[in-house]
């Protein structure tokens, strides 16, 4: 491991932390409303296919780069392709994660605030107007900045303890709790009157409702959902021992992500259909539709609190990986304290996140190409930087990285036939880059 001081203590810790990085806003917030807008079951089926054919090979690639180099993102590309411009793939990852975290933490702050308000008697009342409540929260500068600060403070505290005692330990508690809370919510949702209509919508493929736009959404979601593109997983896998199979670990992460997406659908759609609401609500699904749903069921406050807590857990486990790639880049030489770098990084991200936090209040009239700062940053990261990062990583793993090292890392600690390696390499050479280019063109046009 090239003398790296820190490692994951176990394969389980690595898988849970990688799954935590992948399972976040995309799986629990974006996936359900995109599924609702794209026709339900058929979209879910296409999403699964793309996740296995595009997202999973990309995830394996990042794992191979990280462990093959034994370095965090920037140093990994510098070591594997010395004296070349490929180091900019790692730098792009750090910049992309910084920008992503600056607005992601704003949304994380909203979830944190809603979680606090969901204490029984504070969020669900007969007089609550949920669209107005959401609007009043995101338009209040003090509340949004406080949420942003507290969310980042949690991240800084966890990362300051390091890989094993910080990120890994947090994920070992948060990820099992996330699954337990989800299963409780799914059981409650499925027992509602009329719930089966929502289950049929979500799990019955009806390809008549599928449009070319929905297929492209599913394609894009397949690599967004696994946290690939910004080399977060390069950094995570650089802490991994040689006795762990990378394809096997990546497969577990992909399957856990698909499972969480399924749980999210089974928790949300039966409840939405049970109360006659629209599944294609868009981003308001979490903060407006779901409180409305829970307010109409027995013990609704309790179940809403559980949902918001699990959503907070998922948002945090993803943000750990975003901040870690930044922290690891500045502690790589071992001359800086992890605690000091974590605190400094968190403070800089907070300052950078202030314009996004004020996008719906003091800076509501400030537009960049017709978008608020929050939306413009989201567009830049999700529609431009992330697909570019994915494309360069797919080109690097096939055309630049040493082929023998790639094959060695792929086959290490796993009883896989050479045919599986050949199939993965073929996907990375042809299918993955073509898929990324298609998504990129579609996102830019959109």
UniProtKB/TrEMBL annotation:
Q: Where on the tree of life does the source sit, at the highest rank?
A: Bacteria
InterPro entries on file: Na/ntran_symport, SNS_sf, YocR/YhdH-like
Keywords, sorted A to Z:
Membrane, Symport, Transmembrane, Transmembrane helix, Transport
The yes or no answer to whether the keyword Zinc is present is no
Spell out where the chain crosses the membrane: 12-31, 43-65, 86-113, 133-161, 173-195, 215-240, 252-277, 302-328, 340-360, 380-398, 426-444
Q: How does it sit in the membrane?
A: Multi-pass membrane protein
Where is this protein primarily located? membrane
Q: List localization entries.
A: Membrane
PANTHER family, sorted:
TRANSPORTER
Family affiliation: Belongs to the sodium:neurotransmitter symporter (SNF) (TC 2.A.22) family.
NCBIfam families cross-referenced by the UniProt entry: Na_transp (NF037979)
Its name, as the record gives it, is Transporter
Q: Top-down, what is the taxonomic lineage of the species of origin?
A: Bacteria, Bacillati, Bacillota, Bacilli, Bacillales
């Amino acid at each position: 491991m090239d003398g790296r001081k820190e490692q994951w203590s176990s394969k389980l810790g690595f898988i849970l932390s990688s799954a935590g990085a992948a399972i976040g806003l995309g799986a629990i917030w974006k996936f359900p409303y995109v599924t609702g807008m794209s026709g339900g079951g058929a979209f879910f089926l296409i999403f699964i296919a793309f996740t296995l054919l595009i997202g999973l090979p990309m995830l394996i690639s990042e794992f191979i780069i990280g462990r093959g180099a034994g370095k965090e993102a920037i140093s990994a590309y510098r070591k594997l392709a010395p004296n070349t411009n490929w180091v900019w793939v790692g730098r792009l990852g750090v910049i992309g994660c910084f920008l992503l975290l600056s607005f992601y933490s704003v949304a994380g702050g909203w979830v944190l605030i809603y979680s606090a308000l969901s204490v029984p008697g504070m969020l669900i009342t007969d007089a609550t107007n949920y669209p107005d409540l959401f609007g009043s929260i995101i338009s209040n500068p003090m509340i949004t900045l406080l949420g942003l600060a507290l969310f980042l403070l949690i991240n800084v505290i966890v990362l300051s303890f390091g890989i094993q005692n910080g990120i890994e330990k947090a994920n070992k508690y948060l990820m099992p709790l996330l699954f337990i809370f989800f299963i409780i919510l799914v059981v409650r949702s499925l027992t509602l009157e009329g719930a089966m209509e929502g289950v049929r919508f979500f799990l019955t493929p009806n390809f008549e409702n599928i449009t070319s736009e929905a297929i492209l959404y599913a394609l894009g979601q397949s690599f967004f959902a696994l946290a690939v593109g910004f080399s977060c997983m390069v950094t995570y896998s650089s802490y991994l021992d040689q006795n762990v199979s990378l394809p096997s670990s990546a497969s577990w992460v992909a399957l856990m992500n698909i499972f969480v997406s399924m749980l999210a659908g089974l928790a949300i759609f039966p409840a939405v259909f049970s109360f006659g609401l629209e599944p294609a609500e868009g981003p308001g699904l979490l903060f407006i539709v779901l409180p409305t749903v829970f307010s109409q069921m027995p013990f609704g406050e309790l179940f809403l609190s559980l949902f918001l807590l699990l959503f907070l857990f998922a948002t945090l486990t993803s943000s750990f990986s975003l901040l870690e790639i930044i922290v690891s880049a500045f502690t790589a030489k071992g001359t800086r304290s992890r605690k000091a770098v974590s605190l400094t990084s968190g403070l800089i991200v907070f300052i950078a996140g202030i314009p996004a936090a004020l996008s719906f209040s003091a800076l509501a009239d400030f537009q960049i190409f017709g978008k608020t700062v929050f939306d413009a940053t989201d567009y830049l990261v999700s529609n431009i930087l992330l697909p570019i990062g994915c494309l360069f990583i797919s080109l690097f793993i096939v055309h630049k990285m040493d082929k023998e090292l790639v094959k060695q890392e792929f086959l290490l600690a796993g009883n896989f036939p050479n045919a599986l390696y050949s199939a993965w390499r073929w996907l990375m050479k042809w299918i993955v880059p073509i898929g990324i280019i298609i998504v990129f063109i579609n996102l830019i046009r959109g």
